[in-house]
Amino acid sequence: MELHIGIEKGQREKIADGLSRLLADTYTLYLKTHNFHWNVTGPMFNTLHTMFEEHYLEMAPAVDQIAERIRALGVFAPGSYHQFTKLSSVKEADGVPNAEEMIASLLEGHETVIRTAREIFPAAEEAGDEASADLITQRLQLHEKTAWMLRSMLG
Q: What is the three-class DSSP state of 95?
């Protein structure tokens, strides 16, 4: 059935492509954060274990919201590790870094998500897609705040 939501098909597909990258970045960062939650050690264990849990718990529903927005635009959302690996700009962690390296790696991941969100925002704005623009703005605010907090921990 054809979509008639006031956004041209080409614009919807362009927005959905960008949101697919945002989804892949978010999911990869979610997995990395969960990994670090499980494997952090050292004097800041309790603080970081708790903080990482808060971060991945926030990203879990965000992944769903992004995927559902892609579907609302009439495009199938990526949903496999294979697809996410192709689409994501967030670097996966090799091995188990120390706590400070985990913080720096997560900071880099959040900043990557921020850059992806900024790159795709103009397509939503140009198409008058307020729902996608709002979702992107919400993700920007959250990831910028988290990046600030992680950066502050590094001094």
A: coil
Neighbours of 140 (CB within 10 A): 16
User: pLDDT of the chain along its 155 residues, tens only?
Assistant: 788 899 999 999 999 999 999 999 999 999 999 999 999 999 999 999 999 999 999 999 999 999 999 999 999 999 999 999 999 999 999 899 999 999 999 999 999 999 999 999 999 999 999 999 999 999 999 999 999 999 999 98
End-to-end CA distance of the chain: give it in Å, rounded. Answer: 54
Query: What's the pTM?
Result: 0.96
Nearest to 142 by CA among 42, 32, 26: 26
CA atoms within 13 A on the CB side of 128: 4
Q: Which residues contact residue 96 at a Cβ distance below 8 angstroms, ignoring those fewer than 6 apart?
A: 39
Q: Which residues contact 86 (CB under 8 A, 6 or more apart)?
A: 24
- The domains located in the chain, with CATH, are 9-154 (1.20.1260.10)
| Residue 84: how many other CB atoms lie within 10 Å | 20
